[in-house]
Every structure is written in structure tokens, then in C-alpha cells.
């Protein structure tokens, strides 16, 4: 969910304790990223670029594009380049299925009338999975000015069109150097380990939404702001396999996280970043998905919201955890500037545990930003 921020305000990346201000060396890197993304195209099968203008239905009432729209476009570009590459060899036809999105930073907001240029490139391929790195440029077509709005890394596996449960082999890619291949292998091993570590949360039960007849929850508690969306999966949400596009799910997750943050701070909010999104199980056409968001940690100027996606059949009572992720939001005052967030009132050992885990993630991300700044 992306709420209003004037064009002259600082980007999310410059807010204290959330995204550190860019240093000259980082600004040079952003400029290089812009040049690289502009110059990239369909020069080879491992690259793809799509562009479209941002319309009113992509944004809120004041013209700022929702973060979920950007996430959906990122996934679409990744799916195209991944599917194209995996079908470059003889054998079963397949479709690239999203299994994980690495941490994604929202560097600059995007507005109605700007053109989003989404460039996707395959940067690593294992036997049964591939990494796609995506850059999103926002172009003002009146002035020609371009800015790097988002960067993301996604992991896909190719699923056979004949049997959705069959994962096919991924054709190898050419690397510029042995070092590049080795770095990709390290990223592959790291994400594989992290995905295994998140499996423990796939069975965690989420408390049901509040009953309107129950006494109201105390403001600024986890229960007060917890929110859920229920969505029936239709044909337009699905791939050729008849299961949900990852981008559709991410858009719903962003919307729920935004509702939670607004309910807590009662102000405009902006998506600052998304931690790794893990897709645990597929969601089929005709399923009912319940997307639930709840606050886990709050710093001085940021809110971490855990978003869990559960799916179930309309005709069977079985419910399972399909997707999980952590979103970080910031609160904006009446002048659309970052402001302190109300403290979170903790109730019970379970909420205290989640708060400490969120604090550890916050400190880890902050340390990483400081380390990147020194490079």
C-alpha cells in the first residue's frame, strides 16, 4: 500500500532508522543502476523489459501508486523471463512458479502518469530453480527524467504444464565470470537455508478477526489493528496451471499491511520495504484465501507487520498456510513527513516473543545498511 508523498519530499530510503540516507558512493551506484536498466532489453533470452503508464486505478486518491501494484509488475516480468528461459530447451513445456522474493526496498514513490519500466534478468540458475533480479524505473514522459524506484530479487522453479507437481530442469546460463557464478551460488544456498527456517511458521495459528459483538480492543494493541481480507480466487488471478499468480498474492498482502498500519497510527502511511516473501504452497483457482496482517514490532519511526496467507477450498474444510512475509511501513504527518509511531502495547508472552524477533530483524537490517554504506 502506497500513500501520498509529495514529489519534493525525501524518498523512503532517506528516513532515519528505516532506510539510511544515500551517500555519494551509493548515489553513483543508483545512477549506474538507472543506466543499466535503461540499456537493458531483450538482447538475450535471460533479459526482459516491460513498460506501462501508471493509471488512476493503480494509485490512491492523491495519485501515489500502491506498492502492491509495483510488486505485481515485478513478479510478472520475472515470470515472463523465467518461463521463456526454461522453455528454451526440448522437453516438457513449463511455467515458472514464484517461490520466494528477497527483501525489497521502495526507494522512490511513483505517480499517476509516470511510466514504469520493469527490467528482469536471470542472474543465477541451479538445476531446478533460477534467480531473477528486477529493477523498476519511473519515467516522467513530459521531462524525460528517470529514477530507480525499486530493486528486487525473485526465485522461480519451472513446473510442467502436464503435471503441476513436476519440477523440470532449468537450462544453464552463461556467466560473465566465475566469480559471478560463485556469488550466485552463495545467494542460492542462503535463500534455501532461510526458506527452511521459515517452515516453522507455516503451521502457526492466526487468531480469528474480532467479533463485532465483542468489546472493542484497546487502541495500539496487536488485536486492535489486526486485519484480514478474504478473496475468492478467480480465473483472472491465475496462471496457465490454474493457480494464483504470485503478484496477485503480494498485492493483497500489501493492502492488508497498509490497513493494519493505518489503524495503528491513524495517519497516512507508506511502504518502506518488504522482507523475504516465502511461497510455501500453491493456491488453486476456486480457493478462498484469507490474508491476515498483525503488528509484530515498532521502532521510533517504523512498523513491522507480519502478513500470513491461508487458503482453503470452498467445498472442503482443509486450510493451509500458503505465503508469509514481513512488511515495513512508516507513518506520515499532515505535511506528509515521517513522524514517530505510537508505541505498541504488548499483551502476553507470545506477543513479547514476536516483538523481540522483530527487533532482532530491525537491528540486523540496520547493521546491513550501515555496512553497505561503508563499501
TrEMBL record:
Compositional bias segments (type: Polar residues): 22-31
The UniProt record lists the keyword Calcium: no
Compositional bias (Basic and acidic residues): 351-360
Listed Gene3D superfamilies: Hotdog Thioesterase
Active site per database record: 60, 254
SUPFAM superfamilies on file: Thioesterase/thiol ester dehydrase-isomerase (SSF54637)
Principal location listed in the UniProt entry: cytoplasm
Chain segments carrying region Disordered: 1-53, 198-221, 335-375
Keywords, sorted A to Z: Cytoplasm, Hydrolase, Lipid metabolism, Repeat, Serine esterase
GO CC annotation terms, alphabetical: cytosol
Top-rank lineage group of the source organism: Eukaryota
GO molecular function: carboxylic ester hydrolase activity; long-chain fatty acyl-CoA hydrolase activity
UniProt domain HotDog ACOT-type: residue ranges: 44-162, 223-335
Protein name per its UniProtKB record: palmitoyl-CoA hydrolase
Organism: Cyclopterus lumpus (Lumpsucker)
Gene, per the UniProt record: acot7
Amino acid at each position: 500500500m502506497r500513500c501520498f508523498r509529495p514529489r519534493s519530499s525525501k524518498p523512503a530510503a532517506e528516513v532515519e532508522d528505516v532506510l539510511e540516507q544515500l551517500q555519494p558512493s551509493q548515489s553513483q551506484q543508483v545512477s549506474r543502476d538507472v543506466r543499466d536498466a535503461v540499456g537493458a532489453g531483450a538482447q538475450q533470452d535471460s533479459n526482459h523489459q516491460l513498460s506501462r503508464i501508471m493509471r488512476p486505478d493503480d494509485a490512491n486518491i492523491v495519485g501515489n501508486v500502491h506498492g502492491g501494484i509495483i510488486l505485481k509488475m515485478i513478479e510478472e516480468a520475472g515470470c515472463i523471463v523465467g518461463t521463456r528461459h526454461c522453455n528454451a530447451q526440448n522437453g516438457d513445456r513449463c511455467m515458472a512458479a514464484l517461490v520466494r522474493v528477497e527483501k525489497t526496498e521502495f526507494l522512490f514513490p511513483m505517480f499517476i502518469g509516470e511510466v514504469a519500466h520493469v527490467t528482469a534478468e536471470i542472474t543465477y540458475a541451479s538445476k531446478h530453480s533460477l534467480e531473477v533480479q528486477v529493477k523498476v524505473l519511473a519515467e516522467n514522459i513530459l521531462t524525460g527524467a528517470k529514477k530507480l524506484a525499486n530493486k528486487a530479487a525473485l526465485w522461480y522453479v519451472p513446473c510442467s504444464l502436464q503435471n503441476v507437481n513436476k519440477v523440470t530442469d532449468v537450462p544453464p546460463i552463461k556467466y560473465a565470470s566465475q566469480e559471478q557464478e560463485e556469488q550466485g551460488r552463495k545467494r542460492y544456498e542462503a535463500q534455501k537455508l532461510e526458506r527452511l527456517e521459515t517452515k516453522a511458521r507455516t503451521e502457526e495459528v492466526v487468531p480469528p478477526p474480532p467479533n463485532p459483538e465483542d468489546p472493542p480492543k484497546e487502541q495500539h494493541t496487536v488485536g486492535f489493528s489486526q486485519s484480514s481480507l478474504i478473496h475468492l480466487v478467480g480465473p483472472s488471478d491465475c496462471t496457465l496451471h490454474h493457480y494464483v499468480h504470485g503478484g496477485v498474492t503480494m498485492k493483497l498482502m500489501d493492502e492488508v499491511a497498509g490497513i493494519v498500519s493505518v489503524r495503528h497510527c491513524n495517519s497516512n502511511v507508506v511502504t518502506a520495504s518488504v522482507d523475504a516473501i516465502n511461497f510455501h504452497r500453491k493456491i488453486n483457482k476456486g480457493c478462498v484465501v484469507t490474508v491476515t496482517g498483525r503488528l509484530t514490532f515498532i521502532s521510533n519511526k517504523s512498523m513491522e507487520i507480519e502478513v500470513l496467507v491461508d487458503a482453503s477450498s470452498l467445498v472442503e474444510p482443509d486450510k493451509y498456510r500458503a505465503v508469509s512475509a514481513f512488511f515495513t511501513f512508516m507513518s506520515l504527518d499532515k505535511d506528509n513527513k515521517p513522524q514517530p509511531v505510537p508505541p505498541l502495547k504488548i499483551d502476553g508472552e507470545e506477543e513479547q516473543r514476536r516483538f523481540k524477533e522483530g527487533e532482532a530483524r530491525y537491528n540486523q537490517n540496520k547493521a546491513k545498511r550501515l555496512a553497505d554504506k561503508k563499501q
